[in-house]
Write a structure and sequence with these properties.
The chain has helices spanning about 25-40, 95-115, 135-140, 160-170, and strands spanning about 10, 45-50, 60-70, 75-90, 120-125, 145, 150-155. By secondary structure, it is of the alpha+beta class. It has a 7-stranded mixed sheet. The radius of gyration is 17 Å and the shape is globular.
């Protein structure tokens, strides 16, 4: 029998139960509904939800956007995932939900890296409100401050398996 305290992470879809989701921030609650509607309308949305093992009730979510950031003064660009929305239901805060969603985001980046050619991923970029629980959680998960604007950065590090797979394919 699966451990109900550990959420299952799935791609955000129309069948997930979002009614009653409340992270305490109305804008973020609405973001979940907005991105779910976009997915249901046929748009490509890269989002993950943590759901309970017994139901498809959303406990938390992360929305990711594949982004190219131009490096000022150069012709280089950094490919990364930005996080336009990320929240955990009030009833699930201080549990493992946040951690499993970040792990899912890193896994998605690794999978996309394997399946697509071109510019490699550099990491995940997030802009939390300073001195909030989100900023503290990001630091605990290895995110680092970037500049003085409140940006948080988690570099993407290839595993030995990723590097070996790439060597075999070249």
């Amino acid at each position: 029998m699966p451990d109900s305290t550990i959420p299952t992470v799935e791609r955000l879809c129309g069948h997930h139960q979002t009614d009653g989701f409340d992270c305490g921030v109305a804008y973020l609650n609405e973001s979940l509904f907005f991105f779910q509607r976009r997915f249901s309308a046929g748009e490509r949305v890269l989002g993950f939800v943590a759901v309970s093992a017994e139901s498809l009730t959303v406990m938390g979510f992360v929305i990711l956007a594949d982004t190219l950031l131009l490096v000022p003064g150069t012709e280089r660009a950094l490919r990364c995932l930005t996080v336009p929305a990320f929240a955990v239901d009030l009833s699930q805060q201080r549990k493992r939900v946040f951690k499993v969603l970040v792990e899912a985001a890193m896994g998605a980046m690794a999978q996309r890296q394997k399946s697509s050619g071109g510019l490699r991923y550099s990491g995940i970029l997030c802009l939390p409100d300073p001195a909030t629980p989100l900023e503290r959680w990001l630091r605990a998960l290895g995110f680092q401050s970037v500049g003085s604007e409140g940006l948080m950065w988690l570099p993407f590090e290839e595993t030995d398996d990723d590097a070996a797979n790439e060597d075999e394919s070249t």
